[in-house]
Design brief:
five-stranded mixed sheet, globular, alpha+beta, 4 helices
């Protein structure tokens, strides 16, 4: 998948919104990686209802997502289920991405790392 295609989709998703996205990656990206990142973006959006900045960067071997906002709404049981397979929070239809992320990481034999504070979310894989 091309970086230009990805950034065009993200631009359409955030047009007129309060979330600012910065995408830093090589020009060609594996579709399976982009799928994981897009699912994680949906999770981050839930935590940033008042806006913020999300930087997504593909390094040499890993993806890193960093969300920063002065005010976040963190539902920690939801975030816990991303990295803890035994967590079983109540999920509404608007939160289904929190169930899809662990399943997709398992399917791809990958591991998600997460660091969450009151004003910052760091995700990597």
């Amino acid at each position: 998948m091309g970086r230009n295609e990805v950034t065009a989709i993200l631009s359409d998703m955030t047009h007129g919104g309060r979330l600012v996205l910065d995408w830093i990656s090589p020009p060609d990206l594996p579709r399976r990686d982009v799928k994981l990142v897009f699912l994680l973006i949906l999770c981050v959006e839930q935590a940033l209802p008042y806006g913020g900045r999300l930087t997504i960067e593909r390094g040499d071997t890993r993806w890193a997502l960093r969300a920063v906002a002065s005010k976040m709404r963190l539902d920690m049981p939801l975030w816990d289920c991303l990295v803890n397979p035994n967590a079983a929070p109540e999920i509404t239809p608007a939160q289904v991405q929190f169930l899809l992320v662990p399943d997709e990481f398992t399917r791809q034999h990958r591991r998600l790392t997460a660091e969450i504070t009151a004003d910052e979310i760091k995700l990597g894989f």
